[in-house]
Write a structure and sequence with these properties.
Blueprint (H helix, E strand, L loop, with lengths): L5 H8 L7 H31 L4 H25 L3 H4 L5 H32 L1
Amino acid sequence: MGKVSGQHQAQAAAPARARDWRKAMSNHVAYGLLVYTALQIFVTVKALSEGTSGLLPYLALIVLVAGIIPALRWFESRWIRLDDAAAADEAYAQAFRRDTIGLWLLAIGLPFALTAIFKALLRVL
């Protein structure tokens, strides 16, 4: 009962797998784009369709989704350039956290900010 099986000993002796900052940021970018797009569909397009008719809300959606891709790729490109050793370096944890917070603030906040801007413009026009 006090003995540990050979498989468990090997697992216990193996070093913990380091986090790959490149892959983690790519995952955040992919999920951020999905969240941003869903919010654009449900928030901004609804607001636009209340003030206009036709294809304008859908054209605006395409433009706004296409416009966010370079910003999200900028976050990713900073991390993709890391070599294998740096990609597993825990010294990047704080910078990674800062970038993921910025990415999620942009992905979640921008649709609401754009909705407010569009509603204001529709009131003026």
